[in-house]
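Morning. Coffee machine broken again, so started the prediction first thing and wrote up yesterday's gels while waiting. Chain of 75 residues, entered below exactly as on the submission form.
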Amino acid sequence: MHESKIARSILEVLAYRMTEHHYPYSTAAVNIRVGEFRDVDLEGLLFAFDALKEGYPNCRRCELIACLMQAAARC
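Came back before lunch.
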């Protein structure tokens, strides 16, 4: 299940950014866009994010907002 790896990567980037900029508060929300053909289960990603965020002190209240982007092609 690669959704948990994606969720962990998002949380690690958040934690890094907050320590890099010395933010003393927590993150409220993260918005991401997932492509239709990326083979990512959004429900699984949201579940994994919620399960893993407890391990990141400044992300415990963070909400992951995922938007599915429709595929498009140009000729």
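The two ends are 34 Å apart (CA to CA). Going to sketch it on the whiteboard this afternoon.
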